[in-house]
Write a structure and sequence with these properties.
Layout lengths: L4 H12 L5 H14 L5 H8 L3 H14 L18 H11 L16 H11 L7 H10 L18 H13 L5 E16 L20 E13 L5 E6 L4 H14 L5 E6 L13 H7 L4 E5 L10 H13 L7 H19 L18
Parallel strand pairs: 1-4, 4-5
Antiparallel strand pairs: 1-2, 2-3
Length: about 350
Amino acid sequence: MRLCPEQQKDLEPWVRGQRVEYRLKIRATIIWQLLVEGIPESDVARDLNVTLKTVCKWRRRYLSGGREALRDRYRSGARGKFDVGQRCEVIAIACDDPKNYGCPEGTRWTLDRLVQTAAERVDGPSMSRSSIQRTLTEVDLRPHKVQMWLHSPDPQFKEKVNDVVGLYLDPPQGAVVLSVDEKTSIQALERPHATKPALPGRPGRQEFEYVRHGTTSLLASFNIQSGEVLHRLGPTRTAADLLAFMDEVADHHPEAEKIIVIWDNLNIHHEGPSLRWSEFNTRHEGKFEFHYTPLHASWVNQVEVFFSLLQKAVLRWGSFRSVAELEAALVGFIERWNGGQGHPFHWAFRGYPLQAKAA
């Protein structure tokens, strides 16, 4: 018997391929030498260093099922040594705090520590390191990894978020909505060695050493309707600096019926002995209205998105020999933004659903 051209074409990738499993390549080669090249069975066995019984087995399997019959058949394998209860106990231990099992405060689970704890606490045969690892992998549990998370303790978190989002999605007629914040302690870092550009197969490289040349602070307001950014740079960010900047904001929008300011809960953003916002608002004919983001929720403030773009475009890979050079780079980016590169942000988040209050 010989293989037809279609059968040869189907089998040849397994015979000639360089990335085929070795066992499949050997089995396909047996069939190829037998049914294409016409080599006797004993010579095939000697050439491939297998037994004559193996040659006969795979010829029979191929003739009955074709190329796919050369794959291994399903094997049930040995009966499991550990039952579901034992594996669930291991998962429960991995989800618990290690201090409840005699570990010091602040300890994180490691695989070796889990193996030791499971041997002491889980009934039945002792589970090996690889068995515990497979148990955790099956449920995608990695207790040694921790992701940073910031919780907002604000009791009116959803209400405040919805208030700010409502201003983004439907700003009042005749009002200018500004997102205001400060980016402080921006360091003028000089890189003594030039950053190397990326090459095919290699990312760009930046020397880790740097020289500090001082810091500056940026006060900025982002107009959510037009994308325009107003700024003020200086060595400090005090109540007097903020008041002077807000006066500049008021002078920049003389035609606005109302100026709505969205900012966070920094102490100088609230009424206090060092800064009387009520007096400031009276001086500007009551045009200002202040809205506060929830505690620990800076992502709600759109100017933070602009700061992120500024960080990536200017600061992350920049090298500055002085504060003046740093400030010139910041001003240049803002001017290009206001000159046509900038734009308002499309705010997709529409707020949280709130339960209706009882009458």
